[in-house]
Each structure stands twice: as C-alpha cells, then as structure tokens.
Write a structure and sequence with these properties.
Length: about 400
C-alpha cells in the first residue's frame, strides 16, 4: 500500500527534478517567437489576454488576428488591450473585423484627458496570457519589424515564456487593466516557485504609486557583488540609477551595457552617446549592436537575478508609462541569458576610450549634448504636461 505522504513526496521530487527552464524559457524576437505566440493562442481553452503597445496592420498583425478570431469562434474569451497612441495607425476596418468575430478589444487612453489634451501616460505592456497557465511577457510588439523578413533581421528583443503560477498573477493584472477595476495598485508582487527558481511579475505605474520595476533594478544593482549586464534601448538612466551603477563600479563590480548602434529614434541614440564618456570613466564596458534595431530591455546581476520586460531605463518608463516585467531568481535561467548576451556581444562593436576619443569632435560633442537635453526635456514634458493627442476623436 502506498501512503498519501509518500505520493506527495514523489510528486515534490518530480517537480524539483524538472529544470528551471522547463517553467521559464527565454525567447527572442523573430519567427520562432510568433510561432510560439500563435500556438499558445490555439491551445487556449477558456480565456486569452493580449496587451501590447504597438499592433500593426501588416502580415504579422493579420496572422495573429486570424488566430485570435479563431479562438473567439471556439468560445474562448479573447480580450485585447492596445495603447491608443502606440496603435493609433490601426484602421477601423481591422478593429471592426476583430469585434465581428467575437474579440473584445479596448484602447488604453490616458487617465487625465480633456478634449484633445492628455497627460502622457501610456500602456507599454507586451503580454499574452492564456487560461492563467501559459504566458509570454517581454518587449516584443505585434509587427513585422519584430518578426523579420528574408531581407531584414528582426529587431533585437526578448520575451519569457512562463509555465508556472506567475502566469495566474499576470492574468489577474491583465483583467484588472482591461476591465479598468483599478485594483492593480493594491496587488503586491509575489515570488512563485518554478522548479528551483523564484518568479514574480513587477509593475511600474508611478501615477498609481507602483515603482516595482524601477526599485527592482536599483536594488539589484546596489546588491551586486560581481557582475551587472544590461541590454537596453533608449538607455538614459536617471541620477539615482547612474549613482547606483557608479557605486557598483567603485566596489569592483564588472558592468557591461549592450546598447543600440542602430535606433528607430536616432536622436535618443545620440543622447545616450552623450553619456559614454562618463560610462567609460567609471569602467563600464560599452557594446553597440549594429545588425538591426536594438529594442530589448533585459538585465542580469551576479548570474542569479534577471529581469525582462517592457521597462526602459529612462524617466519615461520610470514616471510616465505603465510597464510590466518578469523578475527571475534562477542560476539556470541566468546562465541561459548570460550565454545569449555573450552571443550578442560577440557580434557587437565595442566602444573603448581610444576609439570613442578618435570619433569624438567638438561638433559631435555639441550635437550629443543638445540631443541629450532635448530628449530628457521632451521625456519630462511627455510625462508630466498635457499635449495635443494625434488620435481619432472616437476609439472603441
């Protein structure tokens, strides 16, 4: 006779024997990511939440739309939340077609809005969750540029597939945002077991007093003992983050940043270059990715702590946008991410004191300085002040 306690113990041993990477998988932008996304939608049985900043009316967008419509037709509840600014180019015919096939769709508009004026708060999530069991979270929007073509590399970006209790938390948060319940600010981040890993969903919504992603970055950097690796687009850390990185360097922590050699916002890239001299002075290694646009937002500390999501290290993500990341404590996952960072670094151009000095002229310095102050001023303006909204008068 097998006692119940023995059976439970066997289950625990089986659970613990599974690799962390069976519960949490690192994904890249490209065709393989969108195949995974479509498969999760097709396997869903009850409820799907898709929330993204940019959804484009192109081959990739139409391909995902077809999967969503098919899911709705088999009586799966399908909820789509898009940012009203990021997805403003979606035609009404595209939206109506989704609705006619049973997809429930809503556009996120700013909290404070009077006629055509708004406070620049944007919904920046890139999330898919099905049945509260399987989820994708990262920085990948729904568009061809993240998929890639025969002629062009996909934008460099990351996501994580979650097959663990953190997916249920993610679904609760997605429901909260879609139905505008307003309770997400009361939901505290919880670390769930996934094999030997600990996994949690963190949010940043400064207007709602949620600064979890920003705090997680800062705390991880302050705790760092050996190494910090950050891959970031639109990389313009504020005073607090810059101070944390400087102190880490002074403690002997090796710091590497992987930045955009090609950017979809060239002015931001030039603004980031304004900080290079300070980075190099503080012994921070700089690598530029030049094979495609770098759009990823990921970090690794001491081969133990990792984070991937929508959060950029700049004031707009800290104070203006609604962001969502996954936080992972796992040496196994960290090893996977570190290996991928190594691959990316091997294909990057290193910026050294020597080649940076050779490239820098007085005019370049002036252009970088102007770009930095223009961008930081604009980010603060977008974050805190009302602006004209280039949107249609009515959004569903």
């Amino acid at each position: 006779m097998i006692h119940k306690s023995t059976t439970e113990e066997q289950k625990k041993q089986l659970h613990d024997s599974k690799s962390d990477n069976a519960y949490i998988q690192l994904l890249h932008s490209g065709e393989a990511y969108f195949i995974r996304l479509k498969n999760i939608i097709r396997d869903a049985q009850k409820e799907i939440h898709l929330q993204t900043y940019i959804y484009e009316n192109d081959e990739t967008g139409n391909d995902i739309a077809t999967c969503l419509k098919e899911a709705a037709q088999r009586d799966v509840k399908v909820y789509v939340l898009l940012d009203a600014y990021g997805s403003v180019a979606l035609p009404d015919s595209f939206i109506q077609n989704l609705i006619q096939h049973g997809v429930l769709i809503r556009f996120f508009s700013p909290l404070f809005s009077v006629n055509n004026f708004y406070l620049g708060r944007r919904m920046h999530h890139k999330v898919l969750v099905a049945d509260g069991k399987m989820a994708l979270i990262g920085g990948i929007n729904i568009a061809n540029k993240y998929h890639g073509t025969l002629k062009s590399e996909p934008w460099l970006d990351y996501a994580v597939q979650l097959d663990c209790p953190a997916a249920e938390d993610l679904q609760k948060l997605c429901r909260d945002y879609f139905f505008r319940k307003g309770s997400s600010k009361k939901i505290k981040p919880v670390l769930h077991s996934a094999g030997k890993a600990l996994v949690g969903i963190t949010q940043n919504d400064w207007l709602k007093s949620k600064t979890e992603v920003c705090d997680a970055y800062t705390n991880a950097i302050f705790r760092a003992k050996k190494e910090i690796v950050i891959l970031g687009s639109y990389f313009l850390p504020g005073r607090k983050m810059s101070k944390a990185l400087k102190k880490a360097s002074e403690r002997g922590v090796k710091i590497t940043v992987i930045l955009a050699g090609i950017s979809d916002v060239p002015l931001v890239r030039r603004a980031t270059e304004h900080l290079y001299a300070n980075f190099l002075h503080n012994q921070i290694q700089i690598y530029e990715w030049e094979k495609s646009v770098l759009h990823g937002k990921a970090a690794l500390v001491d081969n133990q702590w990792s984070t991937i999501g929508s959060f950029n290290l700049n004031s707009l993500s800290c104070y203006g946008s609604i962001e969502m990341n996954v936080e992972i404590y796992s040496s196994a996952f960290a090893e996977t991410l570190r290996s991928d960072f190594n691959r990316v670094i091997s294909e990057c151009r290193e910026v050294t004191k020597t080649n940076f000095k050779q490239k820098t002229t007085i005019l370049n310095k002036l252009a970088d300085w102007l770009s930095y102050h223009m961008i930081t001023f604009t980010m603060h303006l977008l974050t805190f002040l009302p602006h004209l909204r280039a949107l249609k008068k009515f959004r569903l």
